[in-house]
Amino acid sequence: MQLYLPIAEIPVNIFVIFGMGGAVGFLSGLFGIGGGFLLTPLLIFSGIPPAVSVATVTTQVVASSASAVVTYWRRKAIDFKLASMLLIGGVVGSLFGVILFDVLQSIGQLDLVISLSYVTFLGAIGSLMFVESVRAIRRRKSGAAVSARRPGQHNWIHGLPFKMRFRQSRLYVSVLPILALGGIIGFLGTVLGIGGGFMMVPALIYLLRVPTSVVIGTSLFQILFTMSAATIFHAIGNQTVDIVLAMTLMIGGVIGAQFGARMGQNLRGDQLRLLLALLVLLVGMRFAVELLLTPEDLYSAIPSRA
Amino acid sequence: MIVHIATLLVLAASLVCSQARAEELVTSLSSNMVSIQSNFTGTEIVVFGQIIRDAHTVARPGNYDLAIAIEGPKQDVTTRRKKRFLGVWINRYYEMFKGVPSFYALATTKRAGELGDRSILDENGIGLNHLNLPVSGHSRVPLSDRDDFRKAFLRLRQEEGLYSERPETIEFLTATMFRTSIPLPANIPVGNYKVKSYLFQDGILLSKQEAELAVAKIGFEQLTYNLAQNQPFIYGLMAVLIAIFTGWLAGVIFRKD
Fold first, then answer.
1. Nearest CA in chain A to B95
2. Model confidence over B158-181: pLDDT tens digits?
3. Where are the transmembrane segments (chain A) (predicted)?
4. Which residues of A touch B241 (CB under 8 A)?
5. Residue B19 belongs to some domain of the structure
């Protein structure tokens, strides 16, 4: 069934879009991720204009994180103070992201920057996750003890000024790295159409040493509001949020996520992380191939916005 | 039914304005408005017409030729060319075509180039090779490459279905009555269109005529689009609230604990 998208101004097969939302939702439920980094490329590769894909996925990420936040809120597994600090950084980063997005679009380099960023970030994070999960699987097989959080251990981040106490996370750290982390992820999320949970969670654990019990809830809470801001900024700055496309993706996504989450309970954490790492690397490689191979058509013709 | 009504309209109109010139062209569209709704996957516009000769005109030997062009609202289109830079393909040169039709579909009785003199075709923009495609002054494209950009622009627009040239698609019902149907693809831009009809004989432009056609989103599509354009903050806020509600609802429905 064909459905005309009012903002993208093209008809799409609604079942294909619904299926994409469902498939990515399934993976996001399975791995406990937002799935924006999979959904945005899928939409771009299927012919939706990149500007509309990125902006619309920010809306879909709001829905998928809202769905998960409900659960973590009920379990009281959110550090609201830490989330608010991340959020301040996130909203500022997101604002800069939309401005850059607009500039890149007008000089015709948006697609390039999106592709290059995907290659860089997905490549780097995929490789790190791959190495980490392979090590974890080996350790488990050889029966060595898994290193837990060591509260006494300090790194360079703990030497920074403007310290603040976060009771729920049992942390006393500078707000600077928190604002910076929120800012960078808000910025990247807005430009690339991703929630950034797969970057936020490791950063909170390894850099700030936030306890794992609150890390996912806090990350999700911050993503929910940063992506809400990003949606509004994209709507104002670029008018590229397609609500019909977003709704279709959302419904497919939340349903798929339920099945994914159930299946995820039967798999081991390190196996899941290995699968996720491979998936991340695969998407990164798809973009790399696009950039390196000689394009079928060297020319492109894009109308200026009225 | 539509055919009959249109025919009647044509005949009625022909009675009114047959005195002016030797050969007169009268046309009528199957609809003056194309509405885009959620189920829009393209449509077609039927153009009917009649060639009217007044009583004083001697019937000329030779056949009539016709060209009917549907032109969309003007827009600026940037055409870019990729070049390899540090191993990566990036957009390097660009040429901006200013005030070119966002849509152009031409139906003719024979190939556009054979209808008449080059100067007449250029002047009226009949045929893709005769469209006026002005470029912006500040282009860095070398002069020798300008034509490549023009060709690429026309090729890309044709691939998207936005520009087309379909010779021998106007059908004569009688010696002076004709009919053609011009497809409008799903990705057709919205705005005010012009339907231009030209009558040729032996390479001479005898008459031309222009009609209006509106392409517009209606209903929910119009509402959504207008809100996104005119009230972007409210639109964005609504998108967020819908997303949060959907997510929350799913969280409640599929609650596990």
1. A301
2. 999 999 999 989 999 888 899 999
3. 12-39, 51-73, 85-107, 113-131, 171-194, 214-236, 243-261, 273-293
4. none
5. no
